[in-house]
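QA checklist item 7 of 12: single-chain prediction sanity check.
[x] sequence parsed
[x] length recorded as 284
[x] structure emitted
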Amino acid sequence: MTTQQLHDQIKIKKSFLCVGLDVDLNKIPQHLLELEDPIFEFNKAIIDATHDLAVAYKPNIAFFEAYGIKGWMSLQKTINYINENHPEVFTIADAKRGDIGNTSSMYAKAFFEDLKFDSVTVAPYMGKDSVEPFLAFENKHTIMLALTSNEGAFDFQTLIVNGTRGEAERSEAKELYKQVLETSKTWKNSENLMYVVGATKAEYFTEVRKIVPDSFLLVPGVGAQGGSLSEVCKYGMNDNVGLLINSSRAIIYASNGTDFADVARAEALKMQQEMEEILKGLNV
């Protein structure tokens, strides 16, 4: 999927909602456990109930890996179901991969060629040669961790660093996440980059946008983690929206009864309607 196609879906659906599929068998409705593949059946029901309100789905790969081969089979069925029935929806493999070049190439093939996701999340700690293999895939997107929503983000991401390599290249001191953003723009095929910026760090969005004004930002942390949609949009939205707001638990676990899909839709609809009001101000 191209970024233009994603922009088009935002306009059509009047939404920039991403629904996270973090499937925990201890939390899903008990009646689903009687089925052959409860993980897939849960995902299918959520997708069927919300696909007209969401522009993206984000399966969290750890929640599938935890169940071994059965979990991977459920993931395969889930992504196939989305691609076959709702090909207009942007898909994100929330895998947070990132390793030396040949290993990253294999990760990229797994998610882009085999599973056919539109995008995958990556960790940039190992630098350019760990990310560029993902960027080499045409019309695929690499969503790089920049400033995350967890408490531990402050351990490293906001530390002050003294510029780039070598004394001659040193620039003014800045937070590490800014250095990561600036450096990533120099990598080959960097136009295929998107970035993760947590909603609980809303006050940082202005600084992020100074560095990557046109890139899409995947924003976790709205809902159960307490992030504010209005604050994120105030500081993080650009002329083309440029935001994918992820909500997982607040939508998919809004009910654990037999009505779980209907209640999930109601929660997604609340977010979509709030987004529609915001978009009216942009004439989108």
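[x] summary fact logged: The longest strand covers residues 90-97.
[ ] second reviewer sign-off
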